[in-house]
Amino acid sequence: MLIETHAHLDYPDFANDFDDVLRRATEAGVTRIISIGTSVESSRRAVELAEKYPNIFAVIGVHPTYALQAAEDVITPLRELAKNPRVVGIGEIGIIEVRVCLYQHGVRERKKFTIR
Ligand SMILES: [Zn+2]
User: Fold this and answer.
1) How far is the CA of 27 from the centre of ligand 1 (A)?
2) Which CATH superfamily is domain 2-115 in?
3) Interval 65-78 mean pLDDT
């Protein structure tokens, strides 16, 4: 049994041949795929995919790259999404990565997300 633990199946790259992607993964022995949301919207899409396909599960979160564009309150919608039984984790929230991303964008302000 193989488990793909970090995929972004909600990305538009897969829109045209999504079923083919899943078929090829199954043929290669991948029995489960964890699709990671990178924003609240992306997390919603990951949950929708997990609800639709029994071999897909969702991880939700806001990737540091999208943190500056995110709404002030991402915790409330993520907390709601986290109640879904198809959600198996919170991800894409690395603090070190936030610093790197903000440095790369020349931004001094930091957004801080704390999940309690
Ligand atoms: Zn990722």
Assistant:
1) 23
2) Metal-dependent hydrolases (3.20.20.140)
3) 87
What pLDDT, on a 0 to 100 scale, did the predictor assign at position 65?
79
pTM of the model: 0.81
**91 C-alpha to center of ligand 1: Å?**
8
7 is written with which tokens?
């995929």
Give 79-115 pLDDT, tens digit per residue.
999 999 999 999 887 655 555 555 555 554 555 544 4
The CA-atom distances, in angstroms, between 67 and each of 14, 21, 32, 56, 94 are: 24, 29, 28, 25, 11
Ligand 1 centroid from CA 6, angstroms: 6
Distance from the CA of 51 to the center of ligand 1, in angstroms? 20
- In whole angstroms, give the CA distance from residue 25 to residue 12: 18
